[in-house]
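Hi F.,

I've been meaning to write this up properly since the lab meeting, where we talked about keeping a consistent format for the predictions we share between groups. The idea is simple: the sequence comes first, exactly as it goes in, then the structure tokens exactly as they come out, then a line or two of notes. No screenshots and no reformatting. I'm using this chain as the first example so we have something concrete to point to.
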Amino acid sequence: MSLIKFLSSRTFLKQIVLAFVAIFILSFIMLKWLKVTTNHGEFETVPELKGKSIEVAKIELNENNLAMEILDSSNYNPDYPKFSVIEQDPIAGEKVKENRKIYLTLNPSGYRNILVPDLTERTFRQAKPTLEALGFEVGKLIYIDNIAKDRVLEMSFKGKKLQPGDMLPKTSKIDLVLGNGTRPISE
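Output, unedited:
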């Protein structure tokens, strides 16, 4: 039998029609099954959780049929209470599927502690950017008689002398004792 005769035969055309009908029926069944199992068109609205405690956030997420995933944070924000939500993903107001995980970033209990660098014998011009780069603030500048003008002689925090390697919370104000450029008068 020739190929053209086979392609135009009644048996071949019948098989093609049956194949299309089978594909159509299977596609229809699969689409209905997906619509039922994925809750197509049904959404939950993400609530606003920023600034709320973890307990309140958990209650609100449970009420909206959403799951919670807590992400650790090392960035303390003084504008928010301790252990409250400072970021959320997805953001408030978005439409998501039921049982979707909402990722929450919590505000730690305070600034993390940072190692105090050794700034003695450095100039104030070198010490200030070093402190600021680490997250510290320059506090009081106390000048004493020393021939090295603006040289850091001591560091202190709340009246206590600091040693290199001490740990202080980020944003702490470190007071510096500097030389004023005059030779001390010997007794």
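Notes:
The mean pLDDT is 87.
The chain has four helices and eleven strands.

If this format works for you, I'll send the rest the same way.

G.
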